[in-house]
Amino acid sequence: MVAISPATAGLDDRLVSSIEQFLSGMHISDMNEFLVSWDSIDKDIVDSHDAGLLDSTTSSLAVGVNDCMSLLCDTFINLKMKTDGLVVDLGHDLDSLPRKVKHTHLSALSRSPSPSRAIRSPSPSSSKF
C-alpha cells in the first residue's frame, strides 16, 4: 500500500474542482484564482510522483483532467476565433450596403417605439368633461 502524504491528500478532489474553477474563471474573465490553484496542483502532483507517493488512480485522474482542460481551452480558443471572424464578416457586409439602405435602416432603428399621436388614445387632460 502506498502512503498518502499531506500534499496528495485531497488531490483527487482538487483535480475535479479545478474544472469548475476554470469555468468560473472564464465566466468572470479572471483566471488568477484558477491559475494559482492549478500551479499548486501541478506542483503537488510532480512532487508526489518524484517521491513515489502518487498512486495510479490519482495519476490517471490527473491525465484525464489535463485532457479535459486542453479540450476546453481549444474549444474556447476556436469559439473566439469564429466569433472574431463573424464580426469581421458582418462589418464587411455592413460596409458593402449602399449608403441609402444603411441610412434607412438606421433611421428605422432610431424611431420611438411609442405609437403615433394619431393612434394613441387622447390624454385625460384633453378630454372635454
From TrEMBL:
Protein name: A8 homeodomain transcription factor 1
Keyword annotations: DNA-binding, Homeobox
Upper classification of the organism: Eukaryota, Fungi, Dikarya, Basidiomycota, Agaricomycotina
Recorded GO MF terms: DNA binding
UniProt feature, compositional bias: Low complexity: 106-129
Region (Disordered): 105-129
